[in-house]
Write a structure and sequence with these properties.
The chain is of the alpha/beta class. The chain has helices at about 1-25, 80-90, 95-110, 115-135, 190-200, 215-225, 235-245, 250-265, 270-280, and strands at about 40-50, 55-65, 140-155, 155-170, 175-185, 210-215, 230-235. Helix 6 links the parallel strand 6 and strand 7 (about 230-235). The chain is elongated and about 90 Å long.
Length: about 290
């Protein structure tokens, strides 16, 4: 089955090359022109393509003036995009460049050198740079900001790094990662740097309905500096986490349901009513939490 799939994939790509040639010449596979032709067939040349099915040796059609790569291949591409994605993904997961080459070799039959892996992964730097420089439309209704702790693999071992992250949601509910910044911590200066970058790229906040954050005081101060007119709310996921840290496990579900009744209320008056009920029920047991 594996070999059959590989053969069908090779056949498809070669037929695509011949179709392009015939379209260019204005002929079918065995037709002859009755008038003067702009170009003539000139046989085939061999081209290797490394795929997850192994290395395919393709016969690429050509004329005297040009050759006809299948639409899926670029001029100097020796590896299918899926193989290059595999190399990048393995690298991002902390596998060394030498080991990445061996893993790819097991799957494709072609061992990739550590130098080649390094060259391919450098394209990630260009993609990240383009992401950070991409202009933003001022169309975001909601902005979620948070500090995220990630584990990074280094030659000296794994260690944690802090990332500041901005996530936008449009009025129609569609969402997108807008920015991220590696930082030593969540100071006001660090968050101002990220928010000012968003502003510079086009997110001026004219359509912002709400900014949602955790309880970081530095972040709250940065918002007042860059987006002073935007409404700011504490994230309920973080708030709920803080609430449940103060209660016994046997009361988790009851406390959670009571708190959710407050922030899911359809009006301010119903929210206040839900809070008074919550307060009456838990004030004596968990006064600090209430």
């Amino acid at each position: 089955m594996y070999g059959k799939t590989r053969g069908l994939w090779k056949k498809f790509l070669e037929e695509e090359s011949r179709r392009q040639q015939a379209s260019y010449l204005g002929l079918g596979g065995h037709e002859r022109a009755e008038e003067e032709r702009k170009d003539y067939r000139n046989g085939f040349y061999q081209r290797d393509l490394v795929t997850r099915l192994g290395t395919l040796r393709l016969s690429i059609a050509r004329t005297r003036k040009k050759s006809f790569l299948p639409a899926l291949l670029e001029r100097f591409q020796r590896r299918a995009e899926e193989v290059m994605l595999l190399i990048r993904e393995a690298f991002l997961r902390g596998i060394s460049t030498r080991q990445v080459g061996r893993v790819v070799g097991v799957l494709t039959g072609e061992v990739v050198s550590a130098q080649t892996v390094s060259k391919l992964t450098r394209s990630l730097d260009r993609l990240v740079k383009a992401f950070h420089q991409a202009p933003l439309k001022d169309e975001w209704a909601y902005l979620f900001l948070d500090g995220v702790s990630l584990r990074m693999r280094r030659p000296s071992g794994r260690r944690r790094v802090q990332m500041l992250v901005a996530y936008g949601v449009r009025a129609d509910g569609s969402r997108q990662l807008l920015a991220f910044l590696r930082s030593a911590g969540e100071s006001q200066a660090a968050w101002e740097g990220l928010l000012q970058d968003l502003y510079r790229r086009g997110l001026e906040g004219k359509n912002l309905l709400l900014i949602v954050t955790d309880g970081c005081p530095g972040l709250a101060a940065a918002i007042e500096t860059v987006y002073p007119r935007a409404l700011h709310q504490r994230c309920w996921v973080h708030k709920m986490r803080n609430i449940l840290q103060k209660v016994r496990k046997r009361d988790y579900e009851a406390v959670k349901a009571g708190a959710q009744a407050i922030y899911r209320a359809d009006s301010n008056s119903l929210a206040m009513e839900a809070f008074r009920s919550f307060q009456k029920h838990w004030q004596g047991t968990y006064p600090a939490m209430v």
